[in-house]
Design goal:
Layout lengths: L8 E7 L3 E8 L3 E6 L6 E7 L5 E6 L6 E6 L4 E6 L4 E5 L6 E9 L5 E5 L2
Antiparallel strand pairs: 1-2, 2-9, 3-8, 3-10, 4-7, 4-9, 5-6, 5-8
């Protein structure tokens, strides 16, 4: 797939103006960051639909990131993020990770993919 090498393979769809639904691919060795510096809180329902584990953390507007859990394929959880916090999805493997995300609350969220540190 020619577009595979783009930074993020991400498709957000606005559903009924109340939530965002995303099929997210995080490339090997990358970290996906959703939010940070937004005015309101948001909730992210995630499910690991891929074949590799991912680690999810909350990065508050101050201080260190807090690991919320590592999710194996098929696992999921609903997590609430405070105003100003970012959701971090880490893929430390050598294969692409896939997740389904449903986001409610503040949807004025930035999205970036960066090298995992």
């Amino acid at each position: 797939m020619k577009n595979y090498l783009k930074m993020i393979v991400l498709a957000f769809a606005l559903v009924g103006c109340s939530r965002l639904i995303s099929d997210l691919t995080v490339r090997p060795g990358k970290q996906f960051r959703l939010g940070g510096n937004q005015n309101g809180a948001f909730t992210m329902q995630l499910k690991n639909t891929g074949q590799v584990p991912v680690t999810v953390s909350e990065q508050p507007s101050y201080g260190e990131a807090l690991v919320l859990g590592t999710f194996r394929p098929g696992q999921g959880k609903t997590v609430r993020f405070a105003a100003g916090s970012a959701a971090l999805v880490d893929n430390a493997t050598n294969k692409s990770a896939r997740l389904t995300l449903v986001v409610t609350g503040d949807k004025e969220l930035s999205m970036t993919e960066i090298d995992k540190q």
